[in-house]
Amino acid sequence: MLRFLVITFLLLLCLRAFADTNETLVSDYAPYWHGKPWPRWPVVAYVETASNLWVHPVDPTHFPTIQETCEPDSDFTTVTLRLPNGTLYKTYNDFVLGPGLTAVYSGDLNNDGKPDFIVVKYDGGCGLAAEYETGLFAFSDGNDYRLTRVRTMDLSPDDLVIDPKTKQFRFIQTSFRQGKALDGEYHSFWIHRFYMWQGVHFQEDSATLPVWIQYLDRPNHEPTKLLTPALKQKAWDEDPDFNNIEW
């Protein structure tokens, strides 16, 4: 038990340290639309109260709440969406270090007049690994909700954007790759892919190509010119974990 507590404490210190120093790391390499940040989709940031309960910041009694809990001896957590009328929607989530969410956002992502939700949780780790997160999306579907989980990096309102062409919601999923470039050297890249909600699952937006941005010692928002489509595919295929973002 003592060993577990020590390991947990060290992991928390590690996460805290890198959260303090790398909190803008992914945003420093965010894709731009014609030289400017992508326009954000309007969302409300929920606030955390006691017992991992997240509520609307202005009117907590008239809006749904989000809570993550864990049963004794369980190796996963449960995320519960509770509507004001008492209706519950539940799904599982990674245990990581136990119940504890990073952020909760709400907005009408599918334009049906009802709130949808994005629940964010760190996957754990240090350095670049500290940027990996699980994002739980809850989309309203008539009188029901459809829930799905995605893997991404540093999920924030910067990744919940408006497609300037269609005015529809897009989710920017971020991952990381290393690959051999045209100069014969290996470089690191952030890959940003654009997804739309198709009623039951996310689908990659074929009208917006993925943006590959080289990892440098300074902020960079320019798509790389060091990779051909074939080199991008080779780098991508070397790490298939992100081929399907939903789980």
Structure description:
With 247 residues, this protein is mainly beta. The protein has one domain (29-242). Helices cover 12% and strands 39% of the residues. The protein is built from 2 helices and 17 strands. The chain has helices at residues 2-21, 229-237, and strands at 32-33, 36-37, 44-45, 47-48, 53-55, 65-69, 76-82, 88-94, 103-107, 116-122, 132-141, 144-153, 160-162, 169-180, 186-197, 202-204, 211-214. A 5-stranded antiparallel β-sheet has the order 3-9-10-11-12, with no helix packed on it. The protein is globular.
What's the structural blueprint in terms of helices and strands?
Layout lengths: L1 H20 L10 E2 L2 E2 L6 E2 L1 E2 L4 E3 L9 E5 L6 E7 L5 E7 L8 E5 L8 E7 L9 E10 L2 E10 L6 E3 L6 E12 L5 E12 L4 E3 L6 E4 L14 H9 L10
Antiparallel strand pairs: 1-2, 3-9, 4-5, 5-6, 6-7, 7-8, 9-10, 10-11, 11-12, 13-14, 14-15, 15-16, 15-17
- Poorly predicted runs: 1-22
Sheet/helix structural class: mainly beta
> Total strand count, please?
17
Pattern of helices and strands: HEEEEEEEEEEEEEEEEEH
Q: Order of strands in the sheet with the most strands?
A: 3-9-10-11-12
**How can the largest sheet be summarized?**
5 strands, antiparallel
- Tell me the quaternary state: single chain
- Distance N terminus to C terminus? 31 Å
Helical residue percent band:
10-25%
**Count of all domains:** 1
Mean pLDDT: 87
Number of helical regions: 2
Beta-strand content? 35-45%
- Structural Rg: 19 Å
> Which geometry do the CA atoms define?
globular
